[in-house]
Amino acid sequence: MVTATESKPWLVQKYGGTSLGKLLDTICTSIIPQYATGHNLIVVCSAFSGTVKASGTTSLLLQCISYAELGVDSQKRLIDVVDLIKDNHLSVLQAFARSPSRLAAHSQIFEDTASAIKKECEGLKRFLLAAQIVGELSARSKDRVISIGEKLACMIVAACLTSAGTPAKPVSLDNIVSSAFGGSIHDQVAALERLGPNFYHVLADQISGQIRECGSAIPIVTGFFGIMPDSLIQTVGRGYSDLCAAMCAVAVGAEELQIWKEVDGIFTADPRKVPSARLLSTVTDEEATELTYYGSEVIHPLTMDQIRDACIPLRLKNVFKPSGSGTIIYPSTTNPTPISPASTSSDGSDDSPRITPLPSFMLKNGYHGAEQERRKPTAVTVKDDILLINVVCNRNTKSQGFLTQVFDRLERNKIPADLVATSERHVSLAVQAPSDPTALLRLKEELERFGQVGITPNMSIVTVVGHKMRNMVGVSNEILSALAASQINIYLVSQGASKINISLVVGADDALAAMNAIHSEVLKIPSHKEQENRFIPGPWLY
């Protein structure tokens, strides 16, 4: 395990780009210094973002990639976007340094950081202009471009912390994959296929070495880690910084991983759509994974795999309310031999505390017994922009090969199925509408070769999540009855594949009503109107 400079437990904090963009001053002068007094901290940063992801640094870098691939005709637009990225980061740095006391005492720190930002952006510009001549970028080259966003963010956060009296040092992880598995893409791909999830445990070992080099300074780690064999975006997705934070927690045997967002934690439903939604003090890691997959931006599934194996709890916190307890996710799988931190101390001991939930705490929050079974569902969520595809096998197609052919066509067009319902000669699939409309047309043409195809757009998946929910007698009846009472038609139902969710496809126009009906009638959380009606005074009799 990485040895701390003092006998303090390790704590890993991850901050998203929107949080950094809105509350950089609060994070660097209040939140991080407060936790640093009692912990050895590691801070993981995403690229800076605006109020919406489309205006964030990562989205701008993706625009740069598009302009580079369009060729020299887009040279001016490419240069303008790179300059915009540079100006945005310099503005953030200048805004923090605006205080006369900070600027007077630490002017050199801000000047050095501004020079480093300009140097990175000029290097990016040269690289993309060279790529523009060719007119294309490999997946790994795109990774290299996108990694600039996290580098710039970490430079600024480290400078702001240091100027505020908390020594910090930026740590870039863009070469850890080649450090761990060599520079050969073939060797990296072979390692990923051979190790599976353990691939990330090996990367955690590389991270621990870089953390050790920071000494007493707080490591400010880039959320972007390594140039992956098939591109980090394709292999992991846009939630890669959550996974990086989990690897950092594994690397040092942290007592807790904190992910800071702009919400209080996980709710029983989206509070923007269901006003009566309640904050959950805790959920299981399986519930968090399901909620993420079916529409709630909770946590990346690979993140849950890492902390589950290492027995590290994860807490979601609100940057606007640092004193709030948030939602804590305890690893629900009891593992008698949890994986040890990637680097161990010289005597081989692991003294890092392993936090386990008190039975009374879990019982108070609706989880019963050692299996943490629930007597009612935990939350309801909605996934929008869904297509329902119905395929009826024709007489000339053998039924035993029917499903194989359907899923082969889905794989060929890179369209994953969210839900599936089948009979011998019929299959219904709920899929996310592809960003490329031609992919859907190709899929339809290919499926029509061996069956009749119907595609229904404007659908939504409503998912009810609860730990061990398959053991709840009557819960399916409650869900269907609640939707029937609200006159909501159901196009597809799926439960068998998961013990903890029941998913239904409804029309997009009915999704909000379905969510509210289930929240009120199945989760037993009354709407605001129902709560108000309970307090309406009546004609009292004496």
The major sheet is characterized as: 8 strands, mixed
How many E strands?
A: 14
Spatial order of the strands in the main sheet?
Answer: 3-4-2-1-5-7-8-6
What's the overall geometry? globular
- Please give the count of helices: 18
Explain this structure:
- This protein is α/β, with parallel strands linked by helices and 542 residues long.
- It is 44% helix and 18% strand.
- The chain contains 18 helices and 14 strands.
- The protein has an 8-stranded mixed β-sheet, sandwiched between helices. The chain has a 6-stranded antiparallel β-sheet with strand order 10-11-9-12-14-13.
Looking at this protein, list some descriptive labels.
8-stranded mixed β-sheet; 542 residues; globular; 18 helices; 6-stranded antiparallel β-sheet; alpha/beta; 14 strands
Write the layout of secondary structure elements.
Blueprint: E1 10-15, H1 17-36, E2 40-45, H2 57-70, H3 75-96, H4 100-134, H5 139-163, E3 168-173, H6 176-181, H7 185-195, H8 198-212, E4 218-225, H9 232-235, H10 240-252, E5 256-261, E6 282-284, H11 285-293, H12 301-310, E7 314-318, E8 327-330, H13 359-364, E9 379-393, H14 402-412, E10 417-423, E11 426-432, H15 437-447, E12 451-465, H16 475-485, E13 492-494, E14 501-507, H17 511-521, H18 528-533
Parallel strand pairs: 1-2, 1-5, 2-4, 3-4, 5-7, 6-8
Antiparallel strand pairs: 7-8, 9-11, 9-12, 10-11, 12-14, 13-14
